[in-house]
Amino acid sequence: MLPLYLARDLTEAQLLVDRLESEGISVYVRNAALQGAIGELPTTLRPEVCLLDPRDLSRATAIKEEFEARQRTPVTGEDRRCPACGELSPPNFELCWRCGEPL
């Protein structure tokens, strides 16, 4: 496993995992099961998104950098309609909340 991203919490880690997996990149979240012990363990044991195949490093790094940039950008704009199912999603969503297809 190759560490890619140290998340603030499990939710943030899962958002990146979903994005990477939607591009066919296999990942694993290290320390995911330790979230129940918050306050008892060091803060360095946060969820860490790790690549299972080092050959995916270049693509995964680009996706991670895009993810980090979006995290820093304020949410503005109109809801977007999914081209696959027609459902509306907030402007900061990358995937449709209903069917999981890219927006």
| Distance between the first and last residues' Cα | 30 Å
The helix fraction, in percent, is 25-40%
Element-by-element helix/strand order: EHEEHEE
| Low-confidence region ranges | none
Read across the widest sheet, the strand sequence of neighbours is 1-3-2
Short summary:
The chain has 103 residues and is α+β, with helices and mostly antiparallel strands.
Give an overview of the whole structure.
The chain is built from 2 helices and 5 strands. Helices cover about 30% and strands about 15% of the residues. Strand 4 and strand 5 form a beta hairpin. The protein has helices spanning about 10-20, 55-70, and strands spanning about 1-5, 25-30, 50, 80, 90. It has a 3-stranded antiparallel β-sheet, with helices on one face. The protein folds into 2 domains: about 1-70, Alpha-Beta Plaits (2-Layer Sandwich); about 75-103. The longest helix has 16 residues, at about 55-70. It is of the alpha+beta class and about 100 residues long.
What descriptors fit this protein?
103 residues; alpha+beta; three-stranded antiparallel sheet; two-stranded antiparallel sheet; globular
Topology:
Layout: E1 2-6, H1 10-22, E2 27-30, E3 48-51, H2 57-72, E4 80-81, E5 88-89
Antiparallel strand pairs: 1-3, 2-3, 4-5
